[in-house]
Amino acid sequence: MALTILCLSFLLFLLIGVPVAFAIGLSAVCTILYEGLPLAVLFQQMMSGMNIFSFLAIPFFVFSGELMLYGGIADKIVRFSESLVGHIRGGLGLTNVVACTLFGGVSGSPVADVSAMGAVMIPMMKDKGYDLDYAVNVTTHASLTGALMPTSHNMIIYTLAAGGTVSAGALIPAGIIPAILLMVCCLIAAYYVAVKRGYPVGVFPGWPEVVRTFVAALPGLLVVVIILTGILSGVFTATESASVAVTYSILLTFFIYRTMTWPNFLKAAAKAVKTTGVVLLLIGVSTMFQYLMGLYEVAELMGSFLKAISTNPIMIFLMINILLFILGTFMDMAATILICTPIFLPVAMEAGMHPVQFGIVILLNCALGLNTPPVGTTQFVGCAIAGISVGQVMRTILPFYGALLATLLLVTYVPAFSLTLPRLLGVITG
């Protein structure tokens, strides 16, 4: 009965429009009151969830991404991407994909990626005769690579939710090949639609221009290299790497590019504080929720339920993906990771999936949710920039959604995509 109260109250609060963080906390309170246990138990769990050293990486990664967003890094990345692929049919669409991928590596946030790249690329594509629905779909789907990049704070959230099963040092390199795979799939989708609609062919500016724009963009892109090299060499931890990323971002935007202004710096700081506060609250209340799910053996019950349907690992992975996708459509990315990881990770591991691989799978499912109403954060941001409705975008979304689904299925059923690089680097064995 208590588990029923926990689940139904959570769903009820979501349906009536209560924010996810409060819905999680209130459902936990309702359940604990039914059990007759002291509320202090929940608040003890809440504090233990927030009092983790590795959590400090999250505000630093968020702040670094905001500094890159407000520091004008996007323009230099766009110019490099345009010189590289802008001459192909539908060149601005392909430029958008490459630029979003590169900036996603810098910011580590799909929403920041859409905000920065959308503000630059969507008006540019409109002026060149591209349809707005195409511009929005390209931007919002390509930006999702940010969730898989080394600067992604969602990776840190997953390592916290996994309860020590996965290290950040193993998860961070695991996302690079899937991110490249997602970029390739988005490039294919963008090119397919561009050919179908007859978008123009650009002019190749020559390799000297490619080299020049690459050199201009290189200092911004180096943040990914610095983080990876530092973590894998053992020079600093994931938390320390995040603080290094912030320091580098400040030096880059203030003193090298000289594009950062004091008002924009304050905006970046305020946005980082706001995002960190939301994530901190989510981590705290999700720890309360996880305590109750552990108490009622939800992971074991879910495993038994899925096994009752099928014992085939292929089917189990497919069902997990479907459930994660459904939950991701109406929950925030961080909340989905925090709630679903303790439930589905043991089931996936029992079926033969490595916890690092599962981390990339859940991040991809959450990325799908970011582009699916009713939450669909990146999609709403892209539509707001373009000034068109979500309905217009949804009518032509299938090729791009297909690119995301193809990437998800490949990462789910081919472990090499996510595990090869960590194994080569020696951060995981087996």
Task: Describe it.
The protein is mainly alpha-helical and 430 residues long. It has one domain (38-424). Helices cover 78% and strands 0% of the residues. The chain has 22 helices and no strands. It has helices at residues 2-15, 20-35, 40-50, 57-70, 73-85, 91-107, 110-127, 132-142, 153-161, 168-174, 176-197, 207-233, 238-256, 262-295, 298-309, 313-330, 333-350, 355-370, 377-386, 390-394, 398-413, 416-424. Helix 8 packs antiparallel against helix 11 and helix 12 (207-233) packs antiparallel against helix 13 (238-256). The protein is globular and about 70 Å long. The two termini are 41 Å apart. 53% of the residues are buried.
Residue share in β-strands: under 5%
Helix content: over 70%
Intertermini distance: 41 Å
Order of helices and strands: HHHHHHHHHHHHHHHHHHHHHH
Give the radius of gyration: 21 Å
Count of discrete alpha- or pi-helical segments spanning 4 or more residues: 22
Low-confidence stretches: none
Total tally of structural domains: 1
Give the overall shape: globular
For the largest beta-sheet, the strand count, sense and barrel status come to: none
- Report mean pLDDT, rounded to a whole number: 86
Number of strands: 0
Helix and strand content put the structural class at: mainly alpha
